[in-house]
Amino acid sequence: MALFGSLLAHGSSLFGEVPVIVASTAEASKEITKTYDHIFCTRPLSASAKVLSERGKGIAFAPYGGEWRQLRKICILELLGARNITSFRPIREEEVTRLIRYIVDDSSESSEVVNLSKMLATYVTHATVHCIMGGRFKEHDTLLHYVDEAVEVVGGFTLPDLFPSSRLVRALSGTLHRAEESSQEEVDEAPPMGKRFYSTWSYCNDTTCPRLGELVLSSQPNILEKN
Fold it and tell me: Is the pTM here over 0.90, yes or no?
């Protein structure tokens, strides 16, 4: 109620120039997430995300609407159907075997801690590209570099997100310049799968790898207790 009273006294809630809606009660949250989900489900695009995703192209960043629903339909029918998942099983098993062999070799050669996050990112890269391209990806280090760069840039704070009308803020934003440079590097140096593949793949890799890491750790409760 204190927040509601403050808004009545001082006007709309803003982050910089951007109006925001504050759900201060459970009932308000339910209205947003359930009743009016179709209105609020579109992910706001940051200034950096607009640069890296060509202003919201692709299923990862596209606004909710006819185009997004069509992309989702294609993914479900052509990529995530039971037949396709079954047909790609040998590829997944091959890449898992490579991953396990690499972990065993790496742990036996040195007593250092195994970088599981990096290995899982490499596995996801090889498995996905193998399914799409029909072969392994020799330049996976380049791809992972772009992925890490994109995730860091998109996840960072940028003043242009709070003051979108200010040209001065955009000109002084180091993060936005970094996003533009990263986008240009993808065009100039990336393999021929295309810039849009990288912008969408960044999102997929960022969500898949942490989930795999959580699954691996959840199967080792003793290690979790030690940490």
Answer: no
